[in-house]
Amino acid sequence: MSTSTTHVQKETILSLNYYEIFSLDPSARDVDFGSVHRAYRRFALLFHPDKDPSPAARAAFERVKLAAETLTDPQMRREYDEELLQKLQRSTGTGATSAWQRQQRDVMEEEALAADMILRQKEAATAAKAAAKREEELEKEAAAKQMLHELTNALTTPFKRMEEELVHEWEIDEDLLSMKEKEVESLLQKLREYNEGQGRHGRSVDAHTCGTKRRRSEEETASKV
């Protein structure tokens, strides 16, 4: 490569903006890092101080290096875009930069839409997670209520059964009650009659005993005389 050709390339690069150096579209959302890296290596073979110690080559290499660093860093790229837009407005007027502004506006709108979509997706995921958690809590609450209901039934059922049995025993038939009362009255009457009979028998036994004793006493008295 001749010296004049190298000099022209140096001057061309120094007069181009960063996008033009790497043949990139300023309105593109993302930068192809691979393309920038390959182009940077080609420029380094031409303008690196080890290859070309001239001041122009050094300046061209520094510009290529700065351009590559700027375009591959999102924050530095945004700042450069604003700076480039201001330069275009100052040099050519607002009318000439309307296309550039539209491109930048379109890029920002696309970025805003993408950010809004990501935000909506996060909100939807958060809402779905909250709904799933609430459903899980409701299921746990329902299970706890069911367990409490079953435990309550297990504890109260035996007592309810005993109560029902007692109530059933208390519900005595009137006819049966009357019959039992008659049976009790009959037994009491028999008991009274028995007691009276025992009383009469006792009195007769006592009279017989007294008569026997009296006769024995009289006999003993007569024998003594």
TrEMBL record:
Gene3D superfamilies: DnaJ domain
Annotated region (Disordered), positions in chain: 193-225
Pfam family, one: DnaJ
InterPro entries according to UniProt: DnaJ_domain, DnaJ_subfamily_B/C, J_dom_sf
GO molecular function, one term: Hsp70 protein binding
Biased composition (Basic and acidic residues): 193-206, 216-225
GO CC field: endoplasmic reticulum membrane
UniProt-listed GO biological process terms: cellular response to misfolded protein
Domain J: residue ranges: 17-84
Protein name per Swiss-Prot or TrEMBL: DnaJ chaperone protein, putative
